[in-house]
């Protein structure tokens, strides 16, 4: 078909608007369209070749290779590997778009990493390296470094207290505390073998200078003093293998007094210091002589207290006036001195008691003892007198009862005149103590209920 036929077909297309009613017209249109398509393709091919030739003349030919990287999460990769064959694979464009989606650990709205919760464990408490303790018989001494926390910072002494007691003194950055075993908020606990006194060393920091900030935390250090429950005030002295005349002479003049608790048969030491109010306390006072000179011991006075201080306000003197046992006269209890089996020992029986105002139920006994030679007579200053409640009179455990006649008044009279040889004999006085003795109450017995059958049997009898 020539150029005229193409023009004629184009004119017919414009006139008809693309709608033909008959088959002949459809055939003509098909042929015209086929001719027009070929003509347009030839024109486009020619134009493209001319444009390529012109572009090649301007720029030399070059080849570019674009590398495409596809980001995939491990879960997506594993899902892709698990996808069975024949299933439709995502297009590269969709894969690239999925690679730039927010990760699972990010917040989709803010694209910020999700906050991970972290557990912070408190460090385990370590033993204090800045505190040293020395436990005595009746008090405790505590030394604390001013670098209390071990961080190089010195704390203020006013911020540190021992159960409410302030620092006693500060020397060379060492703070000193001194307290009685029952003072400064101490608590007493008992185990099977020991008595434990516990103190609380409290550090309460105050704001720095004129600010209202704190840079340290409060700290509490527990201080414990352990004492054996079963012990005695003194024990037998150990003699040296050889002695000089001077040391032997000095030993003759040195006297050692002691007291201890005995069993009910007075034969052996009592293994426990715990008593009930129904028990009887058996005490033994003795003197240990350094040489062979025989001695006689006396209990001059005794006082019971709720703490180790014999001069404390809560006290009960039960032996006074140079050897008068007043407990039986004051309370009506059977308390008395026993007859002597040995001159250097004296036995005393005392009914157990406790202080009403003392919650710890502890009793300390402190006695002033005297010793004389056997040749010295028994007088008003050296005696052992007991009050008999049945007879209502004073009796002596050894000697004449007349020496006890002053127990109701005053026994501070003159001593009897001694022989010159007796004046050179060793004599002495000393103090011995026992405690703490713990007093406990017996549980109240439950009353036994009589059944009806027992009552009928009793009536029938």
Verbal overview:
Residues 443-455 have a biased composition (Basic and acidic residues). Residues 134-392 form the ZP domain. With 461 residues, this protein is α+β, with helices and mostly antiparallel strands. Helices cover 20% and strands 28% of the residues. Among the domains are: 131-228, Immunoglobulin-like (Sandwich); 247-412 and 421-440, Immunoglobulin-like, CATH 2.60.40. The protein contains eight helices and 20 strands. The strands form four sheets. It has an eight-stranded mixed sheet with strand order 10-20-17-12-13-14-18-19. A four-stranded antiparallel sheet has the order 1-2-5-4, with no helix packed on it. A hairpin with a 2-residue loop joins strand 4 (169-171) and strand 5 (174-180). Helix 1 (3-16) crosses helix 2.
SSE topology sketch:
Layout: H1 3-16, H2 23-58, H3 74-82, H4 92-99, E1 131-135, E2 139-145, E3 160-162, E4 169-171, E5 174-180, E6 187-190, E7 194-203, E8 219-228, H5 245-253, E9 255-261, E10 274-276, E11 280-289, E12 295-305, E13 315-320, E14 324-325, H6 327-331, E15 336-337, E16 345-351, E17 362-373, E18 385-388, E19 393-396, H7 420-423, E20 428-440, H8 452-460
Parallel strand pairs: 10-20, 14-18
Antiparallel strand pairs: 1-2, 2-5, 3-7, 4-5, 6-7, 7-8, 9-11, 11-16, 12-13, 12-17, 13-14, 15-16, 17-20, 18-19
């Amino acid at each position: 078909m020539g150029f005229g036929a193409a023009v004629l077909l184009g004119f017919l297309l414009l006139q008809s608007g693309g709608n033909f009613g008959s088959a002949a017209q459809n055939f003509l249109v098909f042929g015209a369209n086929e001719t027009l398509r070929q003509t347009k393709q030839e024109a486009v091919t020619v134009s493209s070749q001319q444009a390529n030739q012109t572009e090649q003349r301007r720029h030399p030919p070059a080849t570019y290779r674009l590398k495409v990287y596809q980001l995939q999460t491990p879960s997506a990769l594993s899902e892709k590997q698990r996808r069975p064959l024949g299933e439709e694979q995502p297009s590269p464009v969709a894969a690239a778009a999925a690679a730039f989606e927010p990760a699972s650990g990010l917040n989709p709205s803010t694209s910020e990493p999700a906050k991970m919760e972290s557990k912070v464990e408190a460090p385990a408490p370590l033993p204090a390296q800045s505190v040293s303790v020395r436990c005595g018989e009746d008090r405790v001494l505590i030394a604390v470094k001013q670098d209390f926390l071990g961080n190089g910072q010195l704390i203020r002494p006013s911020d540190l207290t021992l159960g409410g007691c302030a620092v006693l003194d500060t020397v060379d950055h060492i703070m000193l505390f001194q307290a009685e075993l029952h003072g400064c908020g101490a608590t007493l606990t008992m185990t099977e073998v020991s008595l434990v006194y516990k103190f609380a060393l409290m550090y309460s920091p105050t704001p720095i200078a004129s600010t209202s900030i704190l840079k340290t935390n409060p700290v509490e250090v527990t201080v414990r003093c352990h004492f054996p429950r079963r012990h005695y005030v003194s024990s037998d002295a150990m003699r040296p293998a050889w002695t000089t005349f001077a040391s032997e002479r000095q030993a003759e003049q040195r006297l050692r007094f002691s007291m201890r608790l005995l069993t009910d048969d007075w034969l052996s030491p009592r293994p426990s210091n715990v008593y009930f109010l129904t028990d009887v306390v058996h005490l033994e006072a003795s003197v240990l002589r350094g040489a062979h000179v025989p001695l006689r011991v006396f209990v001059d006075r005794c006082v019971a207290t709720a703490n180790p201080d014999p001069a404390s306000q809560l006290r009960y003197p039960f032996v006074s006036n140079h050897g008068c046992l007043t407990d039986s006269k004051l309370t009506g209890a059977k308390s008395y001195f026993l007859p002597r089996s040995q001159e250097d020992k004296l036995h005393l029986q005392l009914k157990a008691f406790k202080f009403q105002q003392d919650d710890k139920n502890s009793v300390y006994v402190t006695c002033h003892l005297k010793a004389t030679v056997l040749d010295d007579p028994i007088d008003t200053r050296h005696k052992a007198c007991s009050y008999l409640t049945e007879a209502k009179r004073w009796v002596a455990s050894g000697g004449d009862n007349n020496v006890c006649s002053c127990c109701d008044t005053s026994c501070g009279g003159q001593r009897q005149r001694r022989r010159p040889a007796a004046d050179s004999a060793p004599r002495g006085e000393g103090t011995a103590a026992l405690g703490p003795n713990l007093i406990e109450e017996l549980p109240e017995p439950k009353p036994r209920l009589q059944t009806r059958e027992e009552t009928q049997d009793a009536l029938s009898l």
